[in-house]
Structures are given as C-alpha cells and as structure tokens.
Amino acid sequence: MLQQNVGGVDRKVRLAVGAVALVAGLFLLSGGFKLVAIVVGLLGLVTGSVRFCPAYLPFGFSTRRKQA
Questions:
Q1: What is the SS3 assignment for 30?
Q2: Residue 12's pLDDT is what?
Q3: Residue 5: per-residue pLDDT
Q4: What is the Cα 39 distance to its own chain's centre?
Q5: SS3 at position 3
Q6: What is the pLDDT, as a whole number, of residue 2?
Q7: What pLDDT digit, counting tens, does each position of 23-41 carry?
Q8: Contact of 18 with 7, CB cutoff 8 Å
Q9: Cα separation of 56 and 43, whole Å?
C-alpha cells in the first residue's frame, strides 16, 4: 500500500475541482478542451479519493498531517 500524501484541504479541493472539470468535460466543452477537462477531472477524483498523488513523490512533498 502506498503512503498517503494528500491531506484534508488538498483532498477536498481535488474532489471539488475534479467533479467540476469532469462534468464540464462531459457536458459543456468540446474539442481538445473536452478531453483535457475529462482527464483533469478523473485525476482529481482518483487522487482525492485514494489520498495519494504520485507527482508529490519525487519532491518528498505531503499535505497530510504528521501522525504523532
């Protein structure tokens, strides 16, 4: 299991932006913007849901609070 590195506020932002982008991509946009919005939406929803972002790994970055 991968170590979670997405914290509470980060998670909520990812889920909200992901949902909006996915809906916009599916119903409101066309052309290249449609595909980009769908991909961004899916990435936001997945990384927010599993609380893991692979882009944070190379930098050792985490928005999750440290457990005592």
A1: coil
A2: 98
A3: 95
A4: 10
A5: coil
A6: 82
A7: 999 999 999 999 999 999 9
A8: no
A9: 14
For residue 48, the number of C-alpha atoms closer than 13 Å in the C-beta half-sphere is 18
Q: Tokens 């290249």, residue?
A: 32
**Residue type (1 letter), 50:** V
Q: How far is CA 24 from the centre of its chain?
A: 16
The whole-angstrom separation of Cα 45 and Cα 49 is 6
Query: Residue written as tokens 């990384």?
Result: 47
Residue length of the chain: 68
Distance CA 11, CA 26 (A): 22
Average pLDDT, the chain: 95
Q: What is the DSSP string of the chain?
A: -PPP---HHHHHHHHHHHHHHHHIIIII--THHHHHHHHHHHHHHHHHHHT--GGGGGGT---SPPP-
Check: CB of residue 21 under 8 Å from CB of residue 42: no
